[in-house]
Amino acid sequence: MDAFLVENGKLNLSALRTPELCWTGNILDSIAFLQSFDAYPDLKKAKKLLDIGTGGGFPLMPLALCLPDTQCIGIDATQKKVDAVKRIIAAVDIPNASLVCGRTESVGHSAEYRAQFDVVTARAVAPLSVLLEYAVPFLKVGGLCAFWKSTKIASELAETADAQKKLSAPYIGAFQYELPEKWGERTIVFFKKTAATYSDYPRRTGIPKQDPL
Ligand code: SAH
Description:
The chain is an alpha/beta fold and 213 residues long. Helix content is 33%, strand content 24%.
């Protein structure tokens, strides 16, 4: 957290600027994921995790620290954020965490990253239907998406019906957790990839967001 707050003072990585806010809002919120492992035991065996739109490195960095046997990669389109997170990772020495700078819509077509991951995470990046198109191409068949959301997911989830079909990634459930005090209840929403992704997806940069599946 200290290393993150130093970088956050130079660049606007997160609005949670004090140790108290950062601890609960970024770190506890990231590691709440570990509590979902009883419900989704496959997550314990994950060898490769990708965090899309990692921004200032959440949930990437806390998860990499808690899961030393999982190779954790963060992707973000903003080079300055990627450079800042690289400095934090070097300062803290997190050997199983690394970064790639790029858009999910293009990196998702590269052989090095496509269909390579057991888990894809994302927090505060896009609506669920957009996230599915960004995330599913990176998963191996059988892999899981885990998307951090508030508790109001019903309408966003209903809008994913077409994306679930076109990407062969059905909704498998949601994990609810509670952060202390005013932070309240939150949800991690899970989808499972059940078949290989058509080469059409993800569509060109900007299209998934402009015209969600
Ligand atoms: N996950 C972090 C940051 C959220 S801000 C957190 O919870 O604190 C959203 C980030 O997603 C931004 O840094 C933005 O650059 C990145 N982003 C949004 N769409 C993207 C895309 N299609 N490809 C790569 N990065 C993307």
